[in-house]
């Protein structure tokens, strides 16, 4: 009996070890404030991203991946929990914590044997609690005196990890957040020459002048520095012989920190690059997939691949693991996004479906000029000068538009910058009705709401400077966050998918 029992135990242990060996390691490299089309593999004619391009060429490039918020901490909190921002409690708004009852992806992975680390920009907190050992084995801001992009300790983390566990690494850069420290920390032997203003491709909604080109060149330097360290991660994994069985994801938390990008519901703010590299798990390497993906799908995908049989019901996304097996597979039909307070009062909602983008704005009287750091930028100043001289193009004028339409509708393939609003076109009334009904269903089923008192502006809309409330005796009190009226942090229903 003892011999039989020992054999059974050995068999179970062997099966367990074999299963552990098959589970992929996971590395998420997430950039800060980089638009989807500012990577070479997504068509950028300016930014140099050879290492990310190489990963895409040997992996899978998603062409229809979307964020749930074009705002730093709400976006990251949404990804790490697999939930919509308004289902996170206070974290629907910038710099606010995730509700205490909501499980995090790294916590679940850690419970299933993964070694977990967050290196770089964390920006994710839990309500009434300190995020620590129950979630991450290692937390490090990743900044060194010669690198404030927060990437300096990524390779070190790979090298010093426990070798007897699969790992989940959240490598979060500060690049390309303003204020452009890559310029003064530039190492040409690593990154190549700095980007030249005269070589920049300027988006149609920005001014094409010297100041804007200089601003964009500095931004592209940060994109290239991020790319370099993503390449260093791939090299370190290869050196340890674990690259083949490591799923490496590359994406960004929101669009570039320029007017009509960051915080916007349009593609320039809400669409993200998503490159997956996993030689052992991607069936058709070097392919692209037009399958619609929401970033809330990342957590369920990783849990499935990690062998988590019964994930917590709080995760609202859909696994896109079938797309890794075949890029033609389709896992979702609809993707939803939000625009909540980020320096300025806002409440916007959007749904993407069948190539259409429908936007609804609950605060149409207010402009969508972008966050305060963008408003303070040389690029925004150049637009203001054109505005004051009555020389704005329609694309540029949209930055200042107020009131805005209550509804917007775009066929994105034919209007990639979303400049032609079809919401009032009778020819598209049926599609607008369908998408509006989808959005209503999502709002109802997920417990979204427009509170009576949203958080008000905390920065001046014209200058981007903090508001001086001492002159009005007004207190900078937070309003209600979206979803609070219906206690949406306790609602797990995903809405239409």
UniProtKB/TrEMBL annotation:
Signal peptide residue numbers: 1-20
A Pfam family reported for this protein in Swiss-Prot or TrEMBL: Sulfatase
Family statement: Belongs to the sulfatase family.
Coiled-coil spans in chain: none
InterPro entries in the record: Alkaline_phosphatase_core_sf, Sulfatase, Sulfatase_CS, Sulfatase_N
Highest taxon of the lineage: Bacteria
Organism: Anatilimnocola aggregata
Region (Disordered): 455-497
Keyword Metal-binding: yes
Protein name (database record): Arylsulfatase
Residues annotated as domain Sulfatase N-terminal: 24-308
Keywords: Calcium, Hydrolase, Metal-binding, Signal
Biased composition (Basic and acidic residues): 455-483
One GO MF term: metal ion binding
EC number: 3.1.6.1
Gene name of this polypeptide: atsA_10
């Amino acid at each position: 009996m003892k011999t039989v029992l020992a054999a059974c135990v050995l068999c179970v242990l062997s099966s367990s070890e074999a299963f552990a060996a098959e589970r992929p390691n996971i590395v998420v490299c997430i950039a800060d404030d980089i638009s989807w089309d500012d990577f070479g593999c997504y068509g950028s004619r300016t930014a140099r991203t050879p290492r990310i391009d190489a990963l895409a060429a040997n992996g899978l490039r998603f062409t229809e991946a979307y964020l749930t918020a074009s705002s730093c901490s709400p976006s990251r909190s949404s990804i790490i929990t697999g939930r919509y921002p308004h289902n996170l409690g206070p974290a629907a708004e910038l710099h606010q914590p995730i509700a205490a009852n909501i499980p995090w992806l790294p916590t679940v992975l850690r419970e299933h044997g993964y070694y977990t680390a967050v290196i770089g920009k964390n920006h994710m907190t839990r309500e009434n609690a300190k995020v620590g050992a129950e979630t991450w084995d290692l937390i490090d801001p990743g900044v060194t005196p010669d690198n404030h992009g927060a990437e300096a300790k990524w390779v070190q983390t790979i090298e010093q990890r426990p070798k007897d566990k699969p790992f989940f690494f959240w490598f979060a850069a500060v690049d390309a957040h303003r204020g452009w420290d890559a310029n003064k920390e530039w190492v040409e032997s690593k990154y190549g020459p700095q980007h030249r203003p005269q070589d920049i491709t300027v988006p149609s909604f920005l001014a094409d002048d010297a100041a804007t080109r200089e601003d964009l060149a500095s931004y592209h330097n940060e994109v290239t520095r991020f790319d370099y360290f993503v390449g260093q991660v791939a090299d370190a994994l290869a050196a340890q012989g674990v690259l083949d069985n490591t799923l490496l994801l590359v994406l960004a938390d929101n669009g570039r920190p320029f007017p009509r990008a960051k915080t916007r519901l349009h593609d320039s703010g809400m669409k993200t690059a998503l490159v997956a590299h996993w030689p052992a798990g991607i069936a058709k390497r070097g392919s692209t997939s037009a399958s619609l993906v929401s970033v809330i799908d990342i957590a369920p995908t990783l849990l499935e691949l990690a062998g988590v049989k019964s994930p917590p019901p709080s995760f609202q996304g859909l696994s896109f693991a079938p797309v890794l097996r075949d890029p033609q597979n389709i896992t979702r039909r609809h993707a939803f996004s939000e625009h909540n307070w980020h320096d300025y009062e806002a409440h916007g909602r959007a749904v993407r479906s069948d190539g259409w983008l429908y936007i609804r704005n609950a605060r149409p009287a207010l402009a969508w000029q972008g966050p305060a750091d963008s408003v303070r930028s040389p690029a925004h100043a150049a637009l203001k000068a054109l505005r004051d001289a009555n020389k704005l193009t329609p694309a540029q004028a949209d930055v200042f538009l107020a009131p805005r339409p209550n509804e917007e509708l775009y066929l994105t393939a034919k209007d990639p910058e979303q400049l032609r609003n079809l919401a009032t076109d009778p020819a598209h009334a049926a599609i607008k009705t369908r998408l509006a009904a989808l959005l209503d269903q999502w709002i109802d089923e997920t417990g979204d709401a427009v509170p009576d008192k949203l958080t008000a502006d905390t920065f001046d809309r014209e200058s981007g400077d903090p508001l001086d409330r001492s002159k009005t005796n007004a207190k900078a009190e937070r309003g209600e966050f979206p979803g609070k009226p219906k206690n949406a942090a306790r609602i797990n229903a995903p809405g239409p998918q």
